[in-house]
Amino acid sequence: MLTLAATLTLLLLPVTPAPAQDDVPSSPPGTNLSAPPPVQTDPDDPDLKLEDGATLAEPKVLDIVSVVETQGGEERRSDTNTTITIALQADVLFPMDSAKLTAAAHERIAAIAAELEKNNPDVVRVFGFTDNLGAYAHGVTLSKERANAVHRELVSLLTASAGMTFQVRGYSEDYPIADNATEEGRRKNRRVEVSFPRSEAG
């Protein structure tokens, strides 16, 4: 595994659906990457020594993000204090323009199932994405079918999925994590992401 960014400290602002630039991923709606501020700050506390008329800005949570990607980019894992996200390139899961899992896909999905067993999350998100080639509507259909295929495989591998709620969606070319102007970038954008809260023990 090649560490792309051992620890990135990010100021987490409200998520917007604008396309990502360079290799900075954008996040689909409903993806909560951070915990709320752990303590409340009293703006009237004299120890803050604010200048007359000054006020505190809204609190922002600093989250530590570790991103690890395989050398070929087939798998990308992002860990925060609260969330685990595993992105698998569609090219290693499916034949071209297909939602039928390849033989090689089962081993990779089994590793994610093991993570789910370890963390036992309440909610698991399985989101599919495509690049920007072809019709947008076709991308929506294909990305949703691929997300459904991964979801079905996960459920078949889990020994205790009864307590888990799965959110399965297809986003077509929305929310790229790389530049669609290059084949390398498009390959990264064709992916299925599985994200879930980290357990306190994990």
Q: Explain this structure to me?
A:
The chain is α+β, with helices and mostly antiparallel strands. Helices cover 25% and strands 25% of the residues. It contains four helices and seven strands, in the order E-E-E-E-H-H-E-H-E-H-E. A seven-stranded mixed β-sheet has the order 1-2-3-4-7-5-6. Strand 5 (123-129), helix 3 (136-157) and strand 6 (165-170) form a beta-alpha-beta unit. Helix 2 packs across helix 3 (136-157). The two termini are 20 Å apart. The relative contact order is 0.19. The model is unreliable at 1-25 (pLDDT under 50).
Task: For this entry, give a set of tags.
202 residues, alpha+beta, seven-stranded mixed sheet, 4 helices, globular
Q: What's this, in brief?
A:
Helix 2 (103-119) crosses helix 3.
Write the layout of secondary structure elements.
Blueprint: E1 2-11, E2 62-69, E3 75-79, E4 83-89, H1 90-93, H2 103-119, E5 123-129, H3 136-157, E6 165-170, H4 183-189, E7 191-197
Parallel strand pairs: 5-6
Antiparallel strand pairs: 1-2, 2-3, 3-4, 4-7, 5-7
Distance between the termini: 20 Å
Report the sheet-strand fraction: 15-25%
- Helix content range of the residues, please? 10-25%
Rg (CA only): 19 Å
Number of strands: 7
Shape: globular
Low-confidence stretches: 1-25
What's the multimeric state?
Answer: single chain
Find the structural class using helix and strand composition.
Answer: alpha+beta
How many helices does DSSP assign? 4
The largest sheet has its strands arranged as 1-2-3-4-7-5-6
- Biggest beta sheet attributes: 7 strands, mixed
Topology as a string of helices (H) and strands (E): EEEEHHEHEHE
